[in-house]
Amino acid sequence: MLAMQIDTLLGLPLDATLTIRLTKFERELWDEEANVLGLSTSKYVRVTLADELTKRKLAVLIKRRNERKEYVRLLRGIGQSRIANNLNQLAYAANTGSLVFTPDVIAQINEAYDAIMYMRSLLIELSGVRV
User: Fold this and answer.
1) Which of 23, 34, 79, 113 is deepest in the core (most CB within 10 A)?
2) C-alpha distance across the termini of the chain, in Å
3) For the chain, what are the domain ranges?
4) Stretch 84-107: mean pLDDT
5) 87/109 Cα distance (integer angstroms)
6) What digits encode the pLDDT tens for the residues 57-93?
7) CA 108/CA 40 separation, integer angstroms
8) How far are the Cα atoms of 27, 28, 30, 38, 82 from residue 24, in angstroms, in the given order?
9) Is 47 exposed, middle or buried (0-12, 13-18, 19+ CB in 10 A)?
């Protein structure tokens, strides 16, 4: 079926030639495989190349799906975290003058900052944006 699609792709005639050099063994192997499938060697090579391109496209789609899963996992983690609430409480305490910067508070702020920067870098990586 793919061989038929290759020949009729966009209804365009096969009017270009590609010449490649092979070993005798490679040529015999391709001729034999084409013969077994009932195809000309030319059609066999075109189908094989098209199949390889399809596999590469499929690999890209799988990679994108996995990236989306990672993106969703990250967004769920953000939603389940209390970072926004904790930052709001810190901002409120700072604005009212009741925030005491103890080493523990500073460590927690730095930890939240590191987590936010990690999520930011991951989101940038997943989105493909170059900074």
Assistant:
1) 34
2) 45
3) 1-65, 81-131
4) 86
5) 8
6) 878 878 878 877 877 777 777 767 777 787 788 888 8
7) 69
8) 5, 6, 10, 21, 67
9) buried
Triad 122, 125, 130: Cα angle to 5°? 130
Element (H, E) at 115: helix 103-127
Specify burial of residue 44 (Cβ count, 10 A radius: 0-12, 13-18, 19+).
buried
Q: How far lies 67's CA from each of 114, 117, 131, in Å?
A: 22, 18, 19
Encoded tokens for 28: 């015999």
Q: What phi and psi values does residue 43 have, to the nearest 5 degrees?
A: -65, -40
Question: Packing angle between helix 24-37 and helix 41-80, nearest 10 degrees?
Answer: 80
Structure tokens at 21: 């050099």
pLDDT digit string (tens) for 9-58?
A: 546 677 888 898 999 999 999 999 999 988 889 888 888 887 787 778 87
Give CA–CA dist 68/91, Å, rounded.
33
